[in-house]
Amino acid sequence: MKVLITGISGPLGRMAAQKLLSDGHKIYGIDRRPWPDAPGKVKMYRADIRKRPAEDVFRTCKPEAVIHMATVTHLTARRTEDRYRINLGGTQAVFDHCHKYGAKHCIFVGRHTYYGAAPDSPMYHTENEPPMAMTTFPELSDLVAADLYAGSALWRFPEMSTTVLRFAYRLGPTRSGTLASFLRGPRVPTVMGFDPLYQFMHEEDVVAAIAAALEARTPGVFNVAGPQPVPLSLVIKVAGRQRIPVPETLFTFALGRFGLPRLPRGAVSHVKYPVVIDSQAFRKATDWTHHYDEVQCMEAFRWA
Amino acid sequence: MKLFASQRIWERVQRLELPFNRYGLDPFGVSQEHLATFYTALAWFYEHYFDTSVFGIENVPERGRVMLVGNHSGGVALDGALVVASTFLEMEPPRLAQGMAEYFLNRWPVFSQWTNRLGHLTGLPEHALRLLEADRMVVVFPEGSRGTAKLYKDRNSVVRFGSGFMRLAMQARAPIVPFAFVGGGEAIPTIHNSELLGKLTGAPYVPFTPWILPLPRPVDVQVYYGEPMVFEGTGNEADEEIHENVDLVKRQIKALLDFGVERRRAGNLIVPESLPRVKGDDQ
């Protein structure tokens, strides 16, 4: 199958491309960033998904399936306008092109932080729950909007299969992603008196899930999570980091200082409360299952 | 590893039939280490500080989903703690009873961490349903904070029950084990509830005793477990039908409570041969 991956040069994009190549698919990629040592079989286009050259890729390659992962977080794009342009403008362009050039399936790679973290939010969110991330964590609202916008393709383009995947954090040897950047330094701040559960999965399980979704072509919105969640304190310990409990009143002040990571204000709720999702529906729809347990993920991250 | 935990308690924690991972954590974040530390302290209160007697523990199923439903007694959740202790210390194998925590607890540092590690998740319907579907034992006080706010003079009363627990039990097809807790009002005799202090701290109210703080006196307390009650249905029935079921549970708890209060007045001398049972229209 001809598969186009947007955001192919990111760590996850590269892994997905390699996995799908080995599954026998023909891979095309769009990214603004280069991928210098891309496998020869990957047809790589340096373009911005919102610009005309990207549309040309759709026109000439005519992909049967598109995997859209060219979204950014506050960690890479600090300016709010940039995030809105890329996450919403880009997602709109990708779905419009999919529709216009006859793609049969479009997979949106989203995030489980959609559900938000709050003291009164339930564990094991199901797909029918509303997004609660915007009020507590404004830096996530563009991603929440992108997720919902992608979901609207389910009724706007009924001739095409749209699959929205909400992935738990990923953790593994590439040390990329939101959780990995939080754990990057030797010292990791936590909010004193709080120890939320963190749910994460191995990167290889993430790309296997994308491949499974591609195979099943089931339209809908699905949570994707791997092993059981564990407390943040344990993640920090097994990752070989030092936990620095900071009283909540000093937490935002301490961020970005004393060798602690920089985080937006809203991230505090995600360091106090868990975001835990239920992925039964996805497992039922695809037969996918995770292969790395929580301990293997943490150790893969530590010893990479 | 087993910091501040006694060997006896640690061994019982090991015997809990829950899916713990290599680090002693279950999928809801319940931690063996935290349980062992907490139960070691709680067992001392249960056995030595308070004189706790439990009747009808054989009515609590050894395995499978079940909802323990009882009256609140005492200004803070002392009743909940001792009920949780009773199923851990008196049952073979021990069982973890998971309370439905008041919302404010998850906002407080330390309380948030400990309630979660001990399995007492915030009292959301989603949590109760998920725990029951995982064949856990859930403890519910349908009086809520109305119940803990009872003053000393009202200590043996039962106030208005919410009906959410009944819908959840019916939806999950979980039997309800009614229980009565007697003596909490004597342990923590509330003379005043300050709503102002409650507003300041985020709690519904802060109770005052004659010695100001709600520190419990070392009194004897009793827990009476009644026979399991099963309610057929989907949980989507009309309010009227649900309220009938709720009322039946409430009357059963009240009967157990009256029995316990009467026995307490008589000096707790007689060991009961059987516990009272209220008959419903359809039972």
Describe this structure in words.
The complex is a heterodimer of chains A (304) and B (283). Chain A is an alpha/beta fold. Chain A contains 12 helices and 13 strands. A 7-stranded parallel sheet of chain A has the order 3-2-1-4-5-6-11, with helices on both faces. A two-stranded parallel sheet of chain A has the order 7-10. A two-stranded parallel sheet of chain A has the order 8-13. In chain A, α1 (11-22) links the parallel β1 (2-6) and β2. In chain A, α1 packs across α7 (203-216) and α3 (80-100) packs parallel to α5. Chain B has 283 residues and is an alpha/beta fold. Chain B has 10 helices and 8 strands. Chain B has helices spanning 7-14, 32-49, 78-90, 111-117, 125-133, 145-148, 164-172, 184-187, 195-201, 239-265; strands at 51-55, 66-70, 97-99, 137-140, 176-182, 192-194, 206-208, 220-225. A 6-stranded mixed sheet of chain B has the order 1-8-5-2-4-3, sandwiched between helices. In chain B, strands 6-7 form a two-stranded antiparallel ribbon. Chain B is globular, with a radius of gyration of 18 Å. At the A-B interface, β12 of A face α4 and α5 of B.
